[in-house]
Amino acid sequence: MTRPTVAALIALLLLGCGHPTAKVTPTASPKHTPTPSPTPVPTPTPLPPPPNLAPAGIGLPAGFSAYIYARGLGTTTSMAFGPDGRLYVVRDSGGSLAVVPSPGAGPQQLLSGLPTALGLAWRDNDLYLSVRGSVRRYHLNNGALSGGGMVVNGLPVGRHQNDWILPMPNGDFLLGVGSTCDVCNEADSRSASVLRFHADWSYAGVVVRGSRNPYGLALRASTGDAYVTINGQDNLGAQPADHLLRVADGEDAGWPRCWLARPW
């Protein structure tokens, strides 16, 4: 299944699944490796008022508005505003990171040649990129990105890989790691799971198992709860297996034994 845009699903019904205990195997100690030379980040500029341009075909509830923020980004996999107020975007083409300085401005490429970059997250002035098999850290200082060493490596990869990164209020990070197959029993408990890492990126274990490809992660700020969108198995015909799940320690999303029962 290709990576879809993260969707907000309103209703969720899961078939009953057990919560087996899985052995957690810590990752190897983080290793720091050189990455492409730092690329200067454009000097911050004040953000102008958003253009009054409503994209055709978008319907919105009362009190909401929509406008085109940027064009020419190509296939994007994730994005987040940095501490400098600009939009940072990971692009699938060429494994690149771009920045959009302000609404309506063209994207400016900062990094390229990243091995399948899918996720990014900011914590203070540190930028974390989820690339195939690892997480890399960059630092924003005086308008420039530096660093790029690995804070996590040796993650299992195959049909899928590590995806989004979610910083949590207590300092931890959540990381989605997809399965190595469509339907199989994984040898590595970190595959098809949502993993937790401490603030220093030391491994804290599996939070949600049985999640074939936990691609999207988001925080509900009012409660501190995290939610994950899971890309379920392929070839189920008219019955989709994709669903939204609240992240809870010890949760089992059911894959590969069972999947979402169609709620409509």
**Which range does the strand content fall in?**
25-35%
**What is the end-to-end distance?**
22 Å
Biggest sheet strand order reads 9-10-11-12-16
Shape: globular
Secondary-structure element series: EEEEEEEEEEEEEEEE
Largest sheet geometry: 5 strands, mixed
Q: Tell me the radius of gyration.
A: 19 Å
**Count of separate DSSP helical elements:** 0
Uncertain spans: 1-45
Let me know the average pLDDT: 82
Query: Which range best describes the helical content: under 10%, 10-25%, 25-40%, 40-55%, 55-70% or over 70%?
Result: under 10%
Total beta-strand segments: 16
Subunit organisation of the chains:
single chain
Structural class: mainly beta
Question: Could you walk me through the main structural features you see in this protein, from its secondary elements to its overall organization?
Answer:
It is a single chain. With 264 residues, this protein is an all-beta fold. It contains no helices and 16 strands. It has a 5-stranded mixed β-sheet with strand order 9-10-11-12-16, with no helix packed on it. Strands 1-2-3-4 form a 4-stranded antiparallel β-sheet, with no helix packed on it. The chain has a 4-stranded antiparallel β-sheet with strand order 5-6-7-8, with no helix packed on it. It is globular. The model is unreliable at 1-45 (pLDDT under 50).
